[in-house]
Structure formats: structure tokens, C-alpha cells
Amino acid sequence: MEQLETEFTQAMGDMTKYDPYMAYNMGFVTEDLDYYIKAFDAGAVPYFASTWTDEGTQLKYNSVIVQVPGSLAAGAKSLLNVQLLALSSAIFDGRAELHQHTSPQASPAALATALERLASAPRKLSLEGKPVLVSTHRSFASSDVARDASYFQNNLQGSKDFEKTTAEGTTYGGRMQSIDQVEFLYVESAFDTQGPVSVAEWEAYQVNLHDTCFDSGNNEGFDRLADNHGGHPIETFELDPFIKAQQQAGLPYRFYGGMGRAAFFYMYGPNGWGIQIIGACTDSALCPSGAGGYDMCTQGITGHCRKDGASDILA
């Protein structure tokens, strides 16, 4: 993990140059971006600052991306980036060197939904006085947007909201269900990373690790990147279509938790990232014979990652 976090951090650089790895982020909209810019500046937290104009509304948006701390490796941070978006920033208006995106950093539909939620929020500040944040998207860098869009629509049962190609690359956005307020984004950059591992190589590493460690037929196996996933309860509460699609694609998956009304189905895509689907497995031909457990003393740690080894019990 420390090596992966070090390589991810190298891709971020000093946050002055856009890198494809910055597309790995969780996005939020705020009405007061300057509050957070001042906090980052005061805390010497590096961030990538940018702006872009939405073609449909001609509204100008501002953005900052920060890499969240968390690694044990010297000089490294975590695998998580956060993107904060806003319609205005007095601070950025005075910065001539601000990066100008030609690609949207969030879809018009997701931004409109987030702004409506902000406008109707019961409070504008947190208990600590921080401006409220509203989630807009979970974004992934992609080496192949067409591949990821196909997986999103066929396996995650999602629907496309938009797709845009510019000189910067291609951005695809969609929602798993019509009621969703948070969108999935896949961003295929036209530029190479400044880090030591390309986006395609990072995806392949994750996919190969899951293929090695997951024994989906016997509902066993675990690896250290299996927890890189989002979570989504299903409105219809029926897992069967997701299970069938994953099996047909030959991609890894696992069940945790009780069967029936409270099953947790983990499915992993061709980009290596996963999602936890919460619902009910109703077709006995699809449901595992046992729910499977999660022994943190053994799973992915002792024996082989595909099957737990014996654990040492210390009195």
C-alpha cells in the first residue's frame, strides 16, 4: 500500500500541473469556495486550481483538487482526492495563472441537482462554521472510456447523462438509478501522467490482483484493494441482474452479510475499482451457499489471498 500511495502521490506532483490521476476524486459543490481556499493556504495544503465554463448555461465554475493525507510512506498521501466546485471565487478571479479546462469537471445535470440541494439546505454552515458541501460525483480516471461506459450501463445498470470530447480527452457521466443525486464520471485524458505508472497500468494491476485473489464461485478471497469501492442501495432491492451481468462478463465479485433481505454484493469492474451493492439475492442459482465472513486476522493476510489460512490465537 505504501508503494502504491507513493506512486499515486508522484502523479499528483506539486499540484501545479493537471495530471490524469486527478480524475480519481470525490466531487462536492459549495457556495463558499474561498473559505476552503483560505484554509488550504493557511495550512500550506497544496491544491490544483482550475476553472471551466459550462457550454449549455455559460456559467463559469471554479475548482480545487486536494489529495487527502493518510500514508505511512514518507512524503506520500492517500489514494483519495477531493474536488470542491463552486460558481464563484473572489480569490481565483484575481489569479491570472488559473488553469482553464476545456472539458467539464462535472456534468450539467449533476451540478444543477447539487445547486438545488444547496439552495434548499436547512443550514448553510456546519456546527464548526464550515460552508456546507453537497456531493456531485465519484470520478475515475480511465484508459478506455468506451469500456467503462459499457460496464456502467450493462453491469451497474446505469444510464448515460452526458459525454463530451475535447482536446483534453473524453468525459462520460451517468447515474446508476434515476433517483440518484451523485453521478459516476469516467475521464480519459489525452495526456500522460507525470507519475511512474500509467492509468492503464494502474488499472491492470488492480484487475490482476482481484483475479488472483477472488474465488467468486466459492465466495472466498480478499485483497488489500478490495475496499476501494463505492456503495449503493438498490431501489428495487433486487441484486439478481447485477450478479448475472457480472458472471456473464467473467469479472470478480463477492458476497458478505446475510442472504435474503440484507446482502452485500461487491462487484469489480474492468478498471479495477469496485462497488458495494446492497439488496436481496432472490435466485437460488445465483446466491452463494453461505454468506461468507470477514476475518480480519486472516483474510488476505495469512495463507493465500484466494483462501484464508489458519490464524494464530494469542491468549
Question: Which labels suit this protein?
Answer:
four-stranded mixed beta sheet, 2,3-Dihydroxybiphenyl 1,2-Dioxygenase, domain 1, alpha/beta, 2 domains, 315 residues
Characterization of the model:
By secondary structure, the chain is an alpha/beta fold. It folds into 2 domains: 2-199, 2,3-Dihydroxybiphenyl 1,2-Dioxygenase, domain 1 (Roll); 212-305, 2,3-Dihydroxybiphenyl 1,2-Dioxygenase, domain 1 (Roll), CATH 3.10.180. It is built from 7 helices and 15 strands. It has helices at residues 2-12, 33-42, 90-93, 108-119, 145-154, 199-213, 240-249; strands at 25-30, 48-53, 60-67, 81-86, 99-100, 133-141, 159-166, 169-175, 183-189, 229-238, 253-256, 263-268, 274-280, 303-304, 307-308. The strands form 3 sheets. Strands 5-2-3-4-1-6-9-8-7 form a 9-stranded mixed sheet. Strands 10-13-12-11 form a 4-stranded mixed sheet, covered by helices on one side. The mean pLDDT is 91.
Secondary structure: elements and pairs:
Blueprint: H1 2-12, E1 25-30, H2 33-42, E2 48-53, E3 60-67, E4 81-86, H3 90-93, E5 99-100, H4 108-119, E6 133-141, H5 145-154, E7 159-166, E8 169-175, E9 183-189, H6 199-213, E10 229-238, H7 240-249, E11 253-256, E12 263-268, E13 274-280, E14 303-304, E15 307-308
